[in-house]
Write a structure and sequence with these properties.
Order of helices and strands: EHEHEHEHEHEHEHHEHHEHEHEHEHEHH
Number of helices: 16
Mean pLDDT: 97
Structural class: alpha/beta
Bound molecules: uridine-diphosphate-N-acetylglucosamine
């Protein structure tokens, strides 16, 4: 704590969110910025990449995120159009508000689009969750991560392996700060308010009888284009989920992309089972409660790999690679790809009691946002003083 004042001529930190996985990262950052002394002034910009009640509004309420100061309302489109629209609409925000820096989180299209606008206008870019690499350039997020880190002036990492990735790509070490995982800040601060699974199912109009299975239940999410956009990949994945459900009931929260593709490919039949509960995208507190109570998580999400590690729940990741290796090395995560045999084997191991219990990685302690606030405030004030002098 310090009694230092925020310089009157130093603009706000423009904080950008766009899509669902950004919200749980930004909520603790905004709180830490306002609690820090001096408080960092902020302006919250939502690009509108996600906009549905389920994908957006419920999470804002659960995470106690303030209403965005500005919403660019870009909506859905191809990657090129979505990225370009964010850029076009974000540029005037910089002209009007003259920020001290722009803080972006994660790896969605909005993250890269805003970073790129800033770099061309010489506005410092701050990237939270920097340096993660799947080394798979077929993933749109990998492109977003690589480029955002090249453009960023201050980079905050969640695990130590990130620094080696950044160094290899020529990012100077003094720009990088190991702050820990803000997503886990959110998890820890909301853990006690997580909604009980029974209530979540009742609210969704589903009989909670699946929760009575003596083996427990599994939580499933799938949304990566590489898993859900082609019938040849999606159909066998759903078939193996159906098979798994005969051993362990599954609660499957369907992303809009996945729901649309299941309908388009005529695959709904595969999921017609009393042991598979299909839910719309869940709120943060509902999902937290479902995961905390689960026997296992089966998912292709980046965030769920980290959250299940923090909760000590075994996670089978339906991907060939991960940009979050610490969840495999120290946490509860196992990569199973989309090979049905590997998925079956992983599930059987967990059901036989041989699932990973893992340990909590360094700095996943609920204080990452506080560390970012302290470091960023000092960095911005020093930079400002240097430029003035
Ligand atoms: C985006 C991110 C991904 C993240 C995911 C979480 C990129 C490249 N991808 O993928 O990293 O893991 O968010 O969900 O930024 N849609 C709705 N309602 C919404 C938003 C989207 O129905 O509020 C539908 C639209 O049909 C849209 C599709 O979902 O075309 C995909 O949305 P989009 O934001 O393009 O990508 P996601 O797959 O959600």
């Amino acid at each position: 704590m310090s009694d230092q004042q925020w310089p009157a001529d130093l603009g706000p930190v423009v904080c950008v969110v766009g899509a669902r996985p950004n919200f749980m990262k930004m909520a603790p950052i905004l709180r830490a910025f306002s609690a820090h002394r001096p408080a960092l002034p902020t302006l919250l910009v939502h690009t509108g990449q996600h906009y549905d009640k389920d994908m957006n509004d419920r999470l804002f309420v659960d995470l106690r995120l303030p209403h965005p100061d500005i919403n660019l309302e870009v909506g859905s489109a191809t990657h090129a159009v979505q990225t370009a629209e964010v850029m076009k609409r974000f540029e005037p925000v910089l002209d009007t508000h003259r920020p001290s820096c722009v803080l972006v989180v994660g790896d969605v299209n909005s993250t890269l689009a805003c970073a790129l606008v800033c770099a061309k206008k010489e506005v410092p870019v701050v990237h939270v969750e920097a340096g993660l690499r799947s080394h798979d350039r077929a993933m749109p997020e990998e492109i977003n991560r690589l480029l955002t880190d090249q453009l960023a002036d201050r980079l905050y990492t969640t695990e130590r392996s990130a620094l080696a990735n950044l160094t290899r790509e020529g990012v100077a070490e003094e720009r990088v700060c190991f702050a820990g995982n803000v997503m886990i800040d959110s998890l820890l601060s909301n853990r006690a308010s997580a909604q009980q699974p029974e209530k979540t199912l009742q609210m969704a109009g589903v009989d909670p009888v699946v929760l009575d299975d003596p083996r427990g239940y599994g939580v499933v999410t799938l949304h990566r284009p590489s898993n859900v956009d082609r019938q040849e990949t999606l159909a066998p994945l759903l078939a193996v989920l159906r098979e798994v459900s005969e051993k362990l009931p599954l609660i499957f929260a369907l992303h809009p992309r996945t729901r649309a593709n299941i309908e388009r490919f005529g695959l709904a039949e595969l999921l017609h089972s009393q042991r598979i509960v299909l839910l719309p995208p869940q709120g943060y507190l509902e999902m937290l409660g479902l995961m905390a109570g689960a026997k296992l998580v089966l998912s292709d999400s980046g965030g769920l790999q980290e959250e299940s590690t923090a909760l000590g729940v075994p996670c089978l990741t339906i991907r060939e690679n991960t940009e979050r290796p610490i969840t495999v090395e120290q946490g509860t995560n196992t990569l199973v790809g989309c090979d049905p045999q590997a998925i079956r084997k992983g599930v059987d191991e967990i059901l036989s009691g041989a699932g990973k219990s893992g340990r909590i990685p360094e700095f996943w302690d609920g204080r990452a946002a506080e560390r970012i606030a302290a470091d960023l405030s000092a960095w911005l004030i020093a930079r400002h003083a240097q430029r003035a002098g």
